[in-house]
Amino acid sequence: MGSASDSGIKALVFDVFGTVVDWRNGVAREVAPFIASQKLTVDRFKFADAWRREYVPAMAEVRAGNRGFVRLDVLHRENLEKVLTGLGIDPQSIPAASLDELNLAWHKLDPWPDAVPGLSRLKERFIIAPLSNGNIRLMLDIAKRAGIPWDAILGAEVVRMYKPAPSVYLDTAELLSIEPAELCMVAAHNDDLKAAKACGLKTAFVSRPREHGEAQTKDLFAEGQWDFVASSFIELADMMLVGESQRLPPAS
Fold first, then answer.
1. What angle do CA 208, 174, 66 make, to 5 degrees?
2. Are strands 127-132 and 154-155 parallel, antiparallel or unpaired?
3. What is the mean pLDDT of residues 164-168?
4. Cα dihedral 197, 200, 206, 211 sign
5. Model confidence band, residue 4 (pLDDT cutoffs 50, 70, 90)
6. Strand-pair category, 183-187 with 11-14
7. Which of 19, 122, 172, 245 is surrounded by the fewest CB atoms within 10 Å?
8. Domains of the chain and CATH, by start
9. Beta-carbon neighbour count of residue 157 at 10 Å?
10. Are 49 and 219 in contact (CB under 8 A)?
11. pLDDT score of 6
12. How many other β-carbons are positioned within 10 Å of the β-carbon of residue 129?
């Protein structure tokens, strides 16, 4: 396999939840004090999983045109109330400020250990940015806390639509003033890459086999003909930067 430069790639955009950051452990950590304060019997990981399960259906309503675009923070907040209702708790019985604070759990996620060093290497050669369904402030807070070195914040709130709608990928390429084939989507989710490839983007799969815990059954391996397949961002950088040292001018 050649380098990314051989493919004409100029920018890399990244799925964030599950690919760059470990949402499950982070949310479970942040909800634990709330569970204790409310004397709930639910496991903190089951709470996190239940919250995440509402993610796709909520975005589908926007993609289908059943509601106007709202940022993911709004959907997360609504989904939190659904989770509480499912646990037999009336969300109105809890101060709104407490729920607003709990909703910030998604702003406090830790990166996978290889993410920041791998991104830092890739940034030396490529434009790097999130292409997440997360809103701008959410992405900024995660990046500031974790030291993620994005060049820009792109994604759903910028183009006013959620993945995997084609406009998310195509409008992002246009915003970067490049052709779709010059943009590479990096994700741990095969469906994200399938949608990106259908729009003409290059694709890179990075395996995150513990995103959903040890019982994970989906996205354990690459399920398509992606341009790059790696087990970490560091391995991805090794693949994409092949030959770059030969292209650099000699040190003076």
1. 70
2. parallel
3. 97
4. negative
5. low
6. parallel
7. 245
8. 5-20+112-247 (3.40.50.1000), 23-107 (1.10.150.240)
9. 22
10. no
11. 61
12. 22
